[in-house]
Amino acid sequence: MSHHTKLKSRIRADYPFILEYRTRWSDNDMYDHMNNSIYNFLYDSVINTYLIEHCGLHPPTSQQYGMVVHSHNNYFASIAFPACAELALRVNRIGNSSVTYEIALFERGVNSVKAVGEFIQVFVDRTTKRPNPNGMSTSLREGLRSILIKSHL
């Protein structure tokens, strides 16, 4: 089975954290579905919601924060206003100062996944803007470990 086929077969149970998002009229584009740029906004939102609620991140004051260094998305089917989206999050890899997230977008009431994306963040020191030689903070690492999927392919 190809990697693309595996992603397309993702189900909600593959993800330990889910955040609901009610689409807005302005999310639709001229083709009457959610514009592709909105997916990145939503992926960023589910990641940061998780970091704030489960990893002790406080964006205005935390000594470390995550910078996105890579992102991509696989689109399988469209979603459109007024649908309710469910953003599903998991961690596929944790490095010294980096984390690889996988995010799936489902439509409430629909079993098949609409899109699966990947974000890679590197946590940097607020002062130096560089990764801390000691890696990410303990609270970040522990929170991220709780949604780490051991075998992600």
From TrEMBL:
SUPFAM superfamilies: Thioesterase/thiol ester dehydrase-isomerase. Transmembrane segments: none annotated. InterPro entries: 4-hydroxybenzoyl-CoA_TE, HotDog_dom_sf. It comes from the Eukaryota. Gene3D superfamilies: Hotdog Thioesterase. GO terms for molecular function: fatty acyl-CoA hydrolase activity. Keywords: Hydrolase. PANTHER family: 4-HYDROXYBENZOYL-COA THIOESTERASE FAMILY MEMBER, NOVEL THIOESTERASE SUPERFAMILY DOMAIN AND SAPOSIN A-TYPE DOMAIN CONTAINING PROTEIN (0610012H03RIK). Belongs to the 4-hydroxybenzoyl-CoA thioesterase family. This is HotDog domain-containing protein. It comes from Lasiosphaeria miniovina.
